[in-house]
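Final paragraph of the annual report: two paired records, presented back to back.
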Amino acid sequence: MTTYADIPKPIRSGIVIVEPELGTPQRIIVLQFNPDTLERSVTPQAAGGEGDGGGGGSGGDRNEALRLKGPAQESWKFTAEIDATDQLDVAAPDGIHPQLAVLEMLVQPTTAQLRAASHLSKKGTIEISPIEMPLTLFTWGSKRVMPVRLTELSVNESAFDVNLNPIRASLSIGMKILTVSDLPAGHRGAELYLAHLAQKEQLARAARGGSFAGLGLGGRGI
């Protein structure tokens, strides 16, 4: 008889909401299914200005051609699936409304925050600070834990129960990786980004190097 006890259980990707001052998790969101694909965009912050490739072009400073202003700007996009159609024997009077609401509240202030801002406005407060959201971390295995801000959340609901509660949906999620250029010095998110970058540096050092011969340059070098 074949057993599968030695097959490792797959790790799920997810989102962790953290209280930035204490670093304590407020909520952990585990994605039901890992996305099939990830679209990542990494854009360097060239010191020469936008559109000139960092110097050497029109209006660019040649002395800045190899300089960077800060960490690269990175964004991620993926599609997440939520499906309760195989769990209809479990009491779920609201369908997947709760799971959708949890994700939507990542980009929404709470009613308490909105009422507080309205109260300050009625009192005649001249300047009301934008509402600060909790620190959001995206996790994709142990080697990718990074602070993010959701920039896109598009929901496509494709199945419903008899009460019109959604029971299946796909979500297009876009997020921006927050770096030390985005967060105040000493912020917990900034420290987590530095830890993420340090791990990337360690992985880069582990990569096997090439040779001049592989480039068709023989042994002459550059």
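The closing record of the year follows.
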Amino acid sequence: MKHLLSTADLSKDEAVLLLDTAAQMAATQSREIKKLPTLRGRTVVNLFFEDSTRTRISFEAAAKRLSADVINFSAKGSSVSKGESLKDTALTLHAMGADAVVVRHWASGAPYQLAHAGWLDAAVLNAGDGTHMHPTQALLDAFTIRRHLVGLRGGAGEGVGADLAGLKVAIVGDVLHSRVARANVALLHTLGAEVTLVAPPTLVPVGVEAWPCRVSYSLDETLDAVRPDAVMMLRVQRERMSGGAGAFFPSPHEYTRYYGLDARRLARLADHTIVMHPGPMNRGLEISAEAADSDRAVIVEQVANGVAVRMAALYLLMAGDTSAEGNHP
């Protein structure tokens, strides 16, 4: 594993190794001195063509806690705004000696091109490309689920090597525009979880029947029939909706009525069920303030877990043995 581009590329052993390494990284973050010397002398470039808060800061924190040098590159205010191509930007990074490039791009497939076109001799980590993939988000989601739920339904047991077998996850909302949903479906299936996508028909992608999951058009029916162990609410991505949100559902009120997680639906969840959201949240649209701030919500914890997961990914790609039998930090 030279790059981390898609969760669909990960074997079960690789995915579990990433989660196990993240658990070790998380343990180091409770110490007084959080820094590790693992990547001292290495350079990580955050190459962001799209705005981001959580992902960029999380990758920056992860790299710095591994003692790497970090260069933050934003398309705004750079030569990209003057028309510089992705190739020329990559060649510039290569000339500067980048050891890893974390790329977020509006075009699906851009990280793959960066990794395989021969422009760079560096590890490439996909931090979100178009509506395609967001692998580290899916990994931090799986890490959070494993911490809270593994062992409840007869999975592989708690701790090192545990998968998510027997767990049920509902992913609800704007699946059509969600790279988080695509990444999670692939990874959760690999780890043994049963995934149900819940969305209005207008927000379900063409070809979803080929995905390793079930599809439902009713949140209430899913909560009753599936009894999910985790409910992941997706942000309604109005900025990606050509023609505006009105082209996909009649009104925000109607969307909330049928697909929002509110107090009434929150009360119907099993006692152990956790509520997740990749952020940023549209409070009052896909999730109510009561649900977002409830005791069963692990949304802030997802952000914290993201640092440990990204530390693990950087470590394994830049310094570690990525085999299942390899050494851990």
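The CA atoms of residues 208 and 215 lie 8 Å apart. This concludes the annual technical report; the extension proposal builds directly on these records.
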